[in-house]
Amino acid sequence: MARYIGPKCKICRRESEKLFLRGSRCFSDKCSFTRRGYPPGAHGKTGRRKLSSYATQLREKQKVKAVYGILEQQFRKIFQDASRRTGATGDNLLIALERRIDNVIYHMGVASSRAQSRQYIKHGHILVNGKKVDIPSFLVKPNQTITITDALKKNSTVKKSLDERDPEKIVTWIKFDRNAVSGTIVRLPKREDITFPIQEHLIIELYSK
What we know:
Blueprint: H1 8-15, H2 32-35, H3 53-68, H4 72-84, H5 89-98, H6 101-108, H7 114-122, E1 126-128, E2 131-132, E3 145-148, H8 150-153, H9 156-164, E4 174-177, E5 182-185, H10 200-207
Antiparallel strand pairs: 1-2, 1-3, 3-5, 4-5
Helix pairs in contact: 3-10, 4-5, 5-10, 6-7
């Protein structure tokens, strides 16, 4: 599976917004965006020109792709599927992204970033209703229960991530059991559940050209 392997901190600087791609590092003094908030490149400090409408739309799409860790081909496929469903295309798009199992593991606090949750999934540490799921793009459904293997429960990185995660920040559509380290999908996510600033209408306008 293709994936982005370049520097993640440079993405935040390019988008002029902290995207929290590196877990706890993003909250520390080591965060590159905090230390160098200007865009990367030789002319980053001099400021950037005013973006055209197309560039603004493109940057919004690139930002959402970076947040959820998805490359262009897969993102376009998700968009096309969202456009065929009933309801608002933008809402369908974001809800599909939220339902991905790698995003659910991140919301549960088991992983400090979506990239880390994808690693756990690919290594076979994630179970859905007792069955192993090793595909990060797997879409969860209501009443499904997500658990982790006993080996992963003993992992010090997981314990640290769970200790650092604020219980009040776990999304309301997931019922999380801290003792069992499991989460149950009580309902599908809604647009209002997504608090990260995303202007999905810009993405729709871009793909409509």
